[in-house]
Every structure is written in C-alpha cells, then in structure tokens.
Amino acid sequence: MSLKLYHDLLSQPARALYIFLKQTGTPFNSVFVNLMKGEHLKPGFAKLNAFKQIPIIEHDGFVLTESVAILRYLCREFKVDDHWYPKESKAQARVDEFLEWQHMGLRLHLVSYVRTKSIVPLITKKPARSEELKRLEGPVASSLDDLNNIWLKDNKPFLVSDKITVADIIGACEVEQLRFAGFDARKGRPQLTEWLDRVAKATSPHYQEAHEKVIQLSPKM
C-alpha cells in the first residue's frame, strides 16, 4: 500500500498533514513541491490538482486534494488512535464543527493578512498599503480572540476534547503562519498561548520539524 504526500512545509495545511502522518506513524513517501519556485503552477501539476494547490495525497493511485478531506480519509483508511478523529458520532461532530468553522472563521482572515503584508510585497517588491493592513488586522484579531475566548474557554486543554484531535493540528498550523507577517498571536491571549504549547508538546518533535522552515524564513518575509 503506497501513500504519497505532495507538500511544501511553507503551506500550513501541508504542515498539518505532515505532522499528523509523522505523529501517527503512518508510512508515506514525501514529494516536495517547491512553492517559492512555482512548481505547483506548472502545467503538468494540474493533472494532480486542477486548482494547482497543495497538499495532495496519492494513495494506490487514488488522488485526493483539500487537507480536511484528506485528514478524514486518512483516519478511515489507516490505523490511527481514535482520539484524532473519533468514531463516536457526537465526538466526531465536535471535531467537524471546528473544521467547518475554521475555513471562514480563521483561515480566511489569517491567509488574507499574511498574503497582503508579506507574500505580495515579496513578489512585487512593493510594500503593503498601511490602510489595507489596518483593515485586515481587525478580522485577524477577532478570529484569534474567538479561539482564545470561545473554543478554548474554561482553559480546555484542546479545542474540542481533553485529547488532541486533527482540529488542533489544523488550527495551530494556521495560527503559526502569522509568523510570516510578524503578528504576535499570543499577545494578550493566555489560553491560546498555552494551547499552542500543548499542541507542540503533544506532537513533538514533528511539530518543531514542520515549523523549522517557517521560523527561519519569517525574519526575511
């Protein structure tokens, strides 16, 4: 049984999948797709993903895109501990609840901010407009406050359970992406700070390995 992961650890969803596969001991072959060189934009790549995005898995000839769909598939197809994506209906629904919320409630705002402040200026060699950044900072702060005050209220150890789930990896990797924009997500958010530390500890050393490139490149971006 062959599993390939197409990824670049600059991508937050790709990091989440990498950490999950490593932490669960799921065997896979790593296929590096260099985002900085635009390898995902080459015509041949569209055969794997018409949207020319990563991550992607290829499992015995079956190709699947979209990180959340991939995580659910991996939990069904491979032997992983039940706490990652519980089989019990209500417990699974809680994980799904966060996974569905994070698309628009977290990822949208954080990605927009990082792209505007760091990615676009890196490509165009022109600084981001201050008024645009100011407009985007509000939704970013609000999303992080929702993580701190709603999802992690009452000092819960993890987002939806007393044990780590795929929701925690997805959420943490999104928050860590703010490093590229020099935005301190931890400031004034004690629950979020402690949660990030718990996720990192629970998936050590793979969490640190996955974020090594992010930490190294952040000052340059």
Automatic annotation (TrEMBL):
Q: Please state every residue range assigned to the domain named GST C-terminal.
A: 88-221
Molecular function terms, GO-annotated: glutathione transferase activity
Catalysed conversion reaction: RX + glutathione = an S-substituted glutathione + a halide anion + H(+)
Keyword check for Cytoplasm: yes
Question: Any idea where the GST N-terminal domain is?
Answer: 1-82
Localization per record? Cytoplasm
Instruction: Kindly give the Pfam families that the UniProt entry links to this protein.
Output: GST_C, GST_N
**Keywords noted in UniProt:** Cytoplasm, Transferase
CDD domains referenced in this protein's UniProt entry, alphabetically: GST_C_Theta, GST_N_Theta
Q: Cellular component GO terms, alphabetically?
A: cytoplasm
User: What PANTHER family does UniProt report for this protein, alphabetically?
Assistant: GH16740P-RELATED, PTHR43917
Q: Which family does it belong to?
A: Belongs to the GST superfamily. Theta family.
How is this protein named in the record?
Answer: Glutathione S-transferase theta-1
- Recorded source organism is Trichogramma kaykai
